[in-house]
Amino acid sequence: MTSGVEYYSPDTFWFAIWTRSRQEKVVASMFESLEITHFLPLKVEIHRWSDRKQIVTIPLFKGYLFARLNPTKDCRLRVLNTPGVAGLVGNQAGPLPVPDYEIENIRAVITQKMQYSAYPSIPIGNRVRVVRGALAGIEGTLLRTHAESKLVLSVEMIHQSIAVNICSSDVEPIGTPLHAQTACKTPAIAVA
Fold it and tell me: CA angle, corner 138, sides to 170 and 7, nearest 5?
């Protein structure tokens, strides 16, 4: 992952790439050699066995990574022919782009080296904007668990989220609660 502002061609968009089981890092490596712009968010975990423990780096969203593509050019075919790729996430009409801000929100949390974890995407909660601190300007869903507040950042296309601890005094409400919205969501499917 690179830091700083990245510039992309205006005719490219982020797409969620669905991978075969445990092939996320292999696909990322292949994309690197094919010079396909990609983003594989990772997290560090400690795995314990009876005789040892080891620090491992695993994909944050199991089975997914993201690639910046022009959907009308042969780049899509190169992606689909990459070993380990199962498909692009979309609907019956074809692959659907992931909004840039969802990718940038995930990158912001990872770059700030905050504690975060994978979290199931939730359809309810209050939308908030962070007004102070390292994540100022980021929008997400505020949850309360026991004495802690968590900011949930979602990638709607793959129905996955991450949760980061946040001080509830550092956020302000925006818009309407998600449960008050009546927009119909199309379920995401992998398309070839």
Answer: 150
